[in-house]
Amino acid sequence: MWSNAPPPTKEEGTREEGARIELAKTGPCMACLSLQMQQLLEPELVIYGCDYNHVKSGSRWRGHMFGYALCKWHNMRYLMEGNTFATMRQIYGPSLLDGSPTFHETYGSDDELIANQTYIDELRAVA
Predict the structure, then answer these.
(1) Hey, what CATH class is 28-126 in?
(2) Chain centre distance of CA 88
(3) Which of 8, 23, 81, 98 is the most buried if burial means most Cβ atoms within 10 Å?
(4) Which of 120, 45, 123 is nearest to 80 (CA)?
(5) Are 96 and 105 in contact (CB under 8 A)?
(6) CA 80, CA 102: separation in Å to the nearest integer?
(7) d(Cα 33, Cα 10) in Å, to the nearest integer?
């Protein structure tokens, strides 16, 4: 989804925000990872290279630290080359564009996905 969140600035407190966003963008999609953890997606099909989904609470933006990585399919329903909509939906499940209730029923709440992103970032930082 398009975000109207302001970009992180260079100020001391926001370096961590920028680092979180950049690390998330290079890492795995949290929705794909959720499917893989449920044994519904083979590990080699988890998509790396993502958009950063900023989370809102109601209509209020929660901040740069409250977001998680989503691949182009899960974020904007973009097809991967050579795949049909039906194939993508069968393999990767619903997109955020299918509606928030369906998306979160399948992959977890925003807070769960944010926590998963934080955990994955911590694992990647140690590796």
Answers:
(1) alpha beta
(2) 17
(3) 8
(4) 45
(5) no
(6) 21
(7) 31
Task: List per-residue pLDDT tens for the chain, 127 residues long.
Answer: 445 555 555 554 578 888 888 999 999 999 999 999 999 999 999 999 999 998 877 777 666 677 999 999 999 999 998 999 999 999 999 999 999 999 999 999 999 999 999 999 999 888 7
On whether the CB atoms of residues 74 and 31 are closer than 8 A, the answer is: yes
Q: For residues 90 and 71, is the Cβ–Cβ distance under 8 A?
A: no
Tokens of 9: 């600035």
Evaluate whether 47 touches 71 at the Cβ level (below 8 Å): yes
What number of other Cβ atoms are within 10 A of residue 43's Cβ? 9
Nearest-angstrom CA–CA distance, 43 and 65: 26
User: Which tokens go with 26?
Assistant: 């290079």
Q: Are 25 and 52 in contact (CB under 8 A)?
A: yes
**Residue of 38, 58, 54, 56 lying closest to 46 (CA atoms):** 38
Is 23 within 8 Å of 121 (Cβ atoms)? yes
